[in-house]
Write a structure and sequence with these properties.
It comes from Actinokineospora auranticolor. By secondary structure, the protein is of the alpha/beta class. About 45% of the residues lie in helices and about 10% in strands.
């Protein structure tokens, strides 16, 4: 069967924060597919917990390209940004490689920017939190420019009201709650319609 929607990325793509009884995660991908009229057997989600942009290149991108889907969703980068070993040059190069590579064959590609994750991380000293927020702001500025350049659809996680609503986030403060995942699916669907 042909794949009509393929998602790549980290735990945000995986659906963490929206657990199912069988131990898997639901997330925003199934409700988005449903709203776009894409059957479950036409969806592949390669999102993986703790994945970085390099992990997506090393373990997810080849499968995605071989699927030759008309629609790709990418949510990755948060794990890069919070690491003490963050390499801005590699991060930017990887994002360009992922987003640009998926769109080369005429597929539609969509992604997100990053909400205030540093504001939700526990145990940070004020100076650390401020430095991480500056890093996230620079990454969002880059993502805005990159998606405009490549024609990638970007859902704005910085200024959307759901980012500021505690009910939209799970107990860890970093992954969307079930309601948050549904809201993100609705936001993507609106942008893609």
């Amino acid at each position: 069967m042909p794949v009509r929607l393929l998602t790549l990325g980290d735990s945000f793509a995986e659906g963490r924060g929206d657990p199912r009884p069988d131990g898997t995660f639901g997330g925003w991908v199934p409700p988005l597919a449903e709203s776009l009229g894409i059957a479950p057997h036409e969806v592949v989600n390669t999102g993986a917990y703790m994945a970085t942009t390099q992990d997506v290149i090393d373990h997810q991108l080849a499968r995605a390209l071989s699927a030759d889907a008309p629609l790709y969703g990418v949510t990755v980068g948060g794990n890069d940004l919070v690491r003490s070993s963050f390499d801005e040059v590699a991060f930017r190069r990887n994002l360009r490689h992922i987003l640009g590579g998926l769109g080369l064959r005429g597929a539609r590609v969509f992604t997100i920017n990053w909400p205030d994750i540093p504001g939700k991380l526990p145990g940070l000293a004020p100076a650390q939190r401020q430095a991480l927020r500056a890093r996230f702001a620079a990454a969002n500025d880059f993502m805005d420019k990159l998606t405009a350049e490549l024609g990638v659809v970007r859902y704005d996680m910085v200024d959307t009201p759901l980012t500021r609503d505690p009910a939209m986030w799970g107990p860890d403060g970093m992954h969307p709650s079930p309601a948050g995942h549904r809201a993100i699916a609705a936001g993507f669907a609106e942008l893609l319609s």
